[in-house]
Structure prediction request, 529 residues.
Amino acid sequence: MTKLKVMTFALPGALAAGAAVAAVALSAWWWVLAAPMALLVALAVRDACQRRHSVLRNYPLLGHLRFALEALRPELQQYFIERNFDGRPFDRDTRTLVYQRAKGTDAEEPFGTERDLYLPGGEYLVPSMAPRPVPEEPPRVVIGGPDCTRPYEMALLNVSAMSFGSLSARAVTALNTGARRGGFAHDTGEGGLSEYHLGPGGDLVWEIGTGYFGCRTADGRFDERQFAEKAAHEQVKCLSLKLSQGAKPGIGGVLPGAKVNAEIAAVRGVPEGVTVVSPPFHTAFSTPRGLVRFLARMRELSGGKPVGFKLCVGSRREFLAVCKAMLDEGTAPDFVVVDGAEGGTGAAPLEFADHVGLPLTDGLVTVHNALVGTGLRDRIRIGASGKVATGSDLVKRLAQGADYTNAARPMMFALGCIQAQRCHTNTCPVGVATQDPRRAAALDVADKADRVHRYQRATVQSALQIMAAMGVDHPRQLHPGLLLHRVDPHTVRSSAELHAWLAPGQLLDRAPASWAEDWAAADPDRFAG
Prediction:
């Protein structure tokens, strides 16, 4: 028990006891103090024992201040937004919606929108005069090209990459339990494959990063034997090779030594108590051709399961070089996950977070067009991640070329994250991003797993309702013309007009002028921006 929690009980308890003694010995007026102090003690005991709110379990009494401020949200909302007190995280409306869906309290609100519909930068989905019925069951996306013998049906919204080590064991268990209940996938992050991923039985996308955690040799290189052994787990449905992530493309992840306990060290294959820094690049390959061959080898070692890679897009020329390598080698990954620069739940250098890498829209359009233009799009599925939180976010990404989406921060909200932004200090107040067993114990797995499941289900249902309102029967019918952008107060353009969209195989026949230079310079035997 922390000192603060002890004080929470001790102070009102001592005051209650002292006032009671004074009431008996001196004057009955002392009961005016003793009674409320006793009620505070009772409330503190209730807070510490309940399982619904992690912040109250770790901070009895004091945690109620947070809920008091939340109750005042309509009055304080503009105050916080104008002063940008939330920094880069989601706006308060989005967080509130995620919390409501996780709790099962999502409801319609009166008086319509409060946003200015004429501000430049606004996005709008196009409704139809002939809406369609909402499907009874959400559609799924088949992941697996011609070289894959064990394809997987992916949900429209899944848990994005977050590692055990960054997250607590209870948080990982709750995420995977929620994924099992809802039938969606849980990306392990690059921190290795732990018993907390495997135990609940949810579908997993095992992510392999530059550190090859969980399948590394003593000197930090890729270990085929360990990889094949762990990839054979029935819960592992797909294998994802991480090239870069949205928050910090071009540099490796960092796990502070304070979080590297014996258990995490064993899962990752690293020394206990030592800060873990992932290399910025892979040692298993160094060229686009090497990347494609390595992905094919991963598929072979996994017994034919779908393989893919994740990246925050930078150079279009480099991605085209990978496409050329796929064509030359006659093989390709089964999926590509595009991580937008606006995404990322981990700590990152501020300048990388703000200035390096393409936002999700630009990266998604680039990858989709490159695959279409090289005739590879039909065999490769595209996932999108980076501030995907609502049904409308999901539909927008599908309209821009994605097949499915992943979410990280909203899943953390569903676990009870309050964005204290103490993830890197091991002092998370709600037990989500900490390896402190006392803090992590506040997170009730059963309750939070239900919230994760409810959030995902409600968000996908919202997306299906929006698509039905647009006259769309299936996500495949979505296209860029259905997403409008306000360019200035007087001009609206669709995504189809704002971006150049390639025809199937167009780069192979005759590259358009806007792509010709990059296509000609793309070299399958070297990465060069």
Remarks:
- The chain has two domains: 3-67, 155-519.
- The chain has 21 helices and 15 strands.
- The domain at 155-519 is CATH 3.20.20.70 (TIM Barrel).
